[in-house]
Write a structure and sequence with these properties.
This protein is an alpha/beta fold. The chain is 37% helix and 25% strand. The strands form four sheets. Strands 14-15-17-18-19-20-21-22 form an eight-stranded mixed beta barrel.
Length: 562
C-alpha cells in the first residue's frame, strides 16, 4: 500500500513542483557536450542567483565557477568515467564548491552521460543541488599547485611559445585516478582527498626538473614534458603510472589500491595552441578510461582532406539510413512496480552505420535531426515500425517518443492518423511520449493536438517530468495518462533526502491528477523498494531490463501483461 501523503494541500490541490524544487536548492540541466551548449530548468535563477550568461550557456565556462581543488568538475567527472555507455547512459556523481555571486557554496552534481557514435560522451542530463556555504578552511590548499582549466591552458601556451620555436617538442600528459566514484562511495570524500594528495606527491617525486606537474579540476593531473620525442611518450607515462601503483595508499578509512589512466598529446603534431593540445590529451584519456588501457593512449592527428574531397553530408547519410532500412527499434521493458510483470515497452530509435554494422542510439542523433529538419521523417518511421510490431503481436503494448518538432508539423499528425485510423485495436496499445518542455510553447495548441491523438485511441505520457516547467493548472489542461518522473531525480534516492522528498511530491501530484507514474533510471532494489512504497505505478531501468535491439522481421516480441 502507498504511504500516506506527507504534503500540505492548498485550496484542495498539492504544492507546486517548481516551488518545491527551488526550496530544496535543486535545478535540472542538460549539456550537449559536443557543442558545449548548456541548458537549465526554469528555476535556475532562483537556485544559483545571478551568474554570468556565458557560464549558464557553456559547459566549460560553468566549470570555471568551480573552486580549484574543491572537487572534480562535471567535465572531469564525466570524462574520467571508466564505464562504457551501452545505450542507456553512464551515471556520474561529484561534489565541488562554486563561486556564486561572491559566495562559495558546496554543490552536489549528479546525472547520466550518453555516448555519441564514437563512444565518447556526447550529452549529459543531471541535477545540481546547492548544499551550504563553504568554510574558508575547507578550501585552503597551500602549496598544492592547483589551477583551473583556463589557467592550465595558459600555462601550456606559455610552455609552447617558449620551446616550439627552438624545435623542442612538448608533450601534454593528462592523468586521472581510475574509478574515483567507487573510491568516493567506499571511503568517503575526506579519504578520497587523502588519496588524491598522495597520488600528487608520488607524481611529483618522479617529475623531471624541466617538466611541469599541475593538478587541475580536483582529480586530474597534467604533466608537461619538454623535449620528449614521440617514441619516448610511452616510457614517460609508464614512469608515472608505476609510481602510483607501486603500493596501496593508507587512509583514515582504510587501504586503497589506486591506478592511473593516462592520455597524451604532443605539440606541434596536435597543434600550436594550449587549448587544442589539452583537448586532444583529454580525448585520449577518455579512450584510455573506456578501454581500461594501462599504458598511455596517444592522440593522433586527424587526417586532412584533400582540397577536392567532398565528404558525404549528414543529411545524405540520414536519408540513406531511411532508404536502406537501417532504422530499427530497441525495446526496453517497463514493469509494474509491485508484481514486476511487463506492462509495456518503450521503443527507442537506433540507426545503423552502413559499413560497420553497428547501431547507435538516439541521444546524439535526435538533436542533430532536429537541427537539420529531418526528425519528422524518423519519427514517422518509428511509428511505422511500432505499428508493424503491434500487428505482429496482439499482446504487445508500446510507447514511442515524438519530438517537439514533429508535434509542430501538421504532416506528422497526418501520418499518425494514416497509421492509426484503420487500426483502432493497435492504436489502443500505443502510448505517445512527449517531453515536458514540448508542452510549454503554445500550450493551448499542444493540448488540442494531444486531445486529437487520444481520439485515435492512443494514450499520452509526459516524459522527463519534474524539471519545474509545468504548473498544476498547466498539467490539468493536458489529456495525460502517464507521468514519467525524470531519472535525474530517481537515480539519487538512496543518497539524497531532498530527492526523496521531491519524488514523493511528484508521485503525490500524479495521484491528485489521477494519472499513473513511471520512475526512470531505476538501477537497484533499495531504489525500487522506496518507489513501490510511495505508490509509483511502473519502473524502468537497468534493474528491470535493458533496451534490446529487435530484428526487423521478427514475428514474436516480448509480450506485455495486458
Amino acid at each position: 500500500m502507498p504511504t500516506p501523503s506527507i504534503f500540505r494541500f492548498q485550496n484542495g490541490g498539492p504544492v507546486d513542483p517548481r516551488g518545491v524544487l527551488s526550496s530544496i536548492g535543486e535545478v535540472v540541466y542538460g549539456w550537449d557536450i559536443q557543442s558545449d551548449t548548456l541548458s537549465w530548468g526554469p528555476n535556475v535563477g532562483e537556485v544559483l542567483g545571478p551568474v554570468p550568461e556565458q557560464a549558464l550557456t557553456r559547459g566549460l565556462s560553468f566549470a570555471g565557477l568551480v573552486e580549484p581543488g574543491s572537487g572534480p568538475s562535471r567535465y572531469d567527472a564525466i570524462f574520467c568515467s571508466g564505464d562504457t555507455d551501452q545505450g542507456e547512459g553512464v551515471v556520474y556523481r561529484t561534489r565541488y564548491a562554486l563561486e556564486l555571486a561572491g559566495r562559495k557554496m558546496w554543490a552536489e552534481d549528479t546525472g547520466r552521460w550518453f555516448a555519441g557514435t564514437d563512444g565518447r560522451p556526447a550529452t549529459a542530463r543531471g541535477v545540481l543541488r546547492i548544499e551550504r556555504a563553504a568554510r574558508p578552511e575547507e578550501l585552503a590548499q597551500p602549496g598544492s599547485e592547483l589551477c583551473d582549466r583556463p589557467a592550465l591552458i595558459e600555462r601550456i601556451d606559455t610552455t609552447l611559445k617558449e620551446h616550439l620555436p627552438a624545435e623542442r617538442p612538448v608533450v601534454v600528459l593528462v592523468a586521472s585516478i581510475d574509478e574515483l566514484a567507487r573510491l568516493n562511495d567506499d571511503f568517503g570524500h575526506e579519504a578520497t582527498d587523502e588519496i588524491i594528495d598522495t597520488v600528487h606527491e608520488r607524481l611529483r617525486s618522479v617529475t623531471r626538473r624541466r617538466d611541469h606537474l599541475v593538478r587541475y579540476a580536483g582529480n586530474s593531473f597534467a604533466i608537461l614534458l619538454v623535449g620528449c620525442p614521440q617514441d619516448q611518450i610511452e616510457s614517460a607515462a609508464r614512469r608515472f603510472t608505476k609510481i602510483v601503483a607501486q603500493s596501496a595508499i593508507e587512509t583514515a578509512r582504510g587501504i586503497a589500491l589506486v591506478r592511473l589512466r593516462v592520455g597524451a598529446a604532443s605539440a606541434p603534431e596536435l597543434g600550436h595552441h594550449g587549448g587544442e593540445v589539452l583537448t586532444a590529451a583529454e580525448g585520449a584519456l577518455a579512450s584510455a578510461r573506456a578501454g581500461a588501457v594501462d599504458g598511455a593512449v596517444i592522440a593522433k592527428p586527424r587526417p586532412r582532406r584533400s582540397p577536392g574531397e567532398d565528404p558525404v553530408g549528414f543529411d545524405v547519410q540520414a536519408i540513406a539510413a531511411l532508404n536502406e532500412r537501417r532504422v530499427r527499434l530497441a525495446l526496453q521493458p517497463i514493469v509494474r512496480t509491485v508484481s514486476r510483470e511487463i506492462a509495456f515497452h518503450e521503443a527507442l530509435l537506433r540507426v545503423g552505420q552502413s559499413e560497420a554494422g553497428l547501431y547507435f542510439a538516439s541521444t546524439e542523433l535526435v538533436p542533430m535531426l532536429e537541427r537539420r529538419g529531418l526528425v519528422r521523417l524518423f519519427d514517422h518511421r518509428v511509428l511505422e515500425l511500432a505499428m508493424e510490431m503491434l500487428k505482429a503481436d496482439p499482446k504487445l503494448v508500446l510507447s514511442v517518443n515524438v519530438s517537439p518538432r514533429s508535434l509542430s508539423d501538421p504532416e506528422w499528425f497526418d501520418a499518425f492518423v494514416a497509421c492509426t485510423g484503420m487500426a483502432s485495436d493497435k492504436a489502443a496499445r500505443l502510448i505517445v511520449e512527449v517531453t515536458e518542455t514540448a508542452t510549454i510553447d503554445n500550450p493551448a495548441r499542444i493540448a488540442k493536438l494531444l486531445g486529437r491523438i487520444k481520439e485515435q485511441g492512443a494514450r499520452i505520457a509526459i516524459d522527463d517530468f519534474g524539471a519545474g516547467h509545468s504548473s498544476i493548472k498547466h498539467l490539468r489542461a493536458f489529456p495525460i495518462d502517464i507521468l514519467k518522473i525524470d531519472g535525474a531525480f530517481t537515480q539519487n534516492l538512496r543518497r539524497s533526502t531532498d530527492d526523496r522528498f521531491y519524488v514523493r511530491t511528484l508521485v503525490d501530484l500524479a495521484g491528485h491528477l489521477g494519472v499513473e507514474t513511471v520512475a526512470e533510471w531505476v538501477d537497484d532494489e533499495p531504489q525500487a523498494g522506496m518507489l513501490r512504497d510511495w505508490g509509483v505505478t511502473y519502473l524502468q531501468g537497468h534493474l528491470v531490463g535493458r533496451a534490446e535491439l529487435q530484428e526487423p522481421t521478427r514475428p514474436e516480441w516480448r509480450t506485455a501483461a495486458g
